[in-house]
Amino acid sequence: SRVGSVAQVPVAEGKSLQQTVELLTRRLELLGADKQGPFCVDCETYHTAAATMGAQGQTGKLMYVMHNSEYPLSCFALFENGPCLIADANFDVLMVKLKGFFQNAKANKIESRGTRYQYCDFLVKVGTVTMGPSARGIAVEVEYCPCVVANDCWNLLMEFMQSFMGSHAPGVPSVFGTKHDSIYSPADTMVQYMELFNKIRKQQQVPVAGIR
Question: Which pTM was predicted?
Answer without folding.
Answer: 0.89
